[in-house]
Amino acid sequence: MKPTVIGALGAIIIGIGGTLAASAGEYSGPGFSGVAWYGKGGTADQKMGPINVDRPGYRMEVHEQGQNVTVLVLWDQDKSYSLMMDQKMYLEVPSEQTGDTASDFDGEPCDGYMNSKKIGSETVNGRSTEKWRCTGELQPEPGTSGTDSTNWFDREIGFPVRDVKDNGEVFEIRDIAVGRQDASLFKIPAGFKKLDMNAMMQQMMRQQQGQ
User: What pLDDT sits at residue 179?
Assistant: First the structure.
């Protein structure tokens, strides 16, 4: 793989990791699929890609900067995987890279926050949700002091369908279809080669210094 491609992929993977709050935990819902959207100005105006959630974990596909990346999180592991689909390679991303821990997700509103308060009920993209105020982020992204948020939690699927942080970042799931997901979606495909995260980070630093 060319160094410039390595740098681009590294930047995508680190950025996505922080956005998704990829962390291990538990999920006991019925499973679902949908489409993830993201935005930074208070509106989710950027389509990220398909998302699948079920007992093994969650998976999201992203097309960014000409690269097809799939983020895979398994609930029983304290790390996530970033699969570079075109190159058939993958990275293991430790929880400390995204600021998350194994206790972040328990299938309840305001997972990952110290305090939670229900402030109402709203319909979001046709789904009935509970609206919660979440404060005191327990494991903020590295280099930050944490950001409070408002969370719209869907009890049927046991998962938030919208999260709006006080800094304007929005993560939203649309076009939800409830049902068990194929177990193969939560496995690293055969033939994918594991990459070294430290080597990628060093390559990114060299590229930045050379600019």
Answer: 98
| H-only helix segments in the chain | 3-20, 95-98, 197-210
**pLDDT tens digits, 126-163:** 999 999 999 998 877 777 778 899 999 999 999 999 99
Per domain, the residue ranges of the chain are: 3-210
Do the bridges between strand 113-124 and strand 193-194 make them parallel or antiparallel, or are there none, so unpaired?
Answer: unpaired
Instruction: Give me the residues paired with residue 200 across strands.
Output: none
For the domain made up of 3-210, the CATH class stated in words is mainly beta
Q: Are 164 and 170 in contact (CB under 8 A)?
A: yes
DSSP, collapsed to helix, strand or coil, labels residue 200 as helix
Q: Which of 101, 88, 85, 25 is nearest to 58 (CA)?
A: 25
Q: How many CB atoms lie within 10 A of CB 31?
A: 20
CB 154 within 8 A of CB 29: no
Cα 112 to Cα 71: distance, rounded to the nearest angstrom: 19
SS3 90: strand
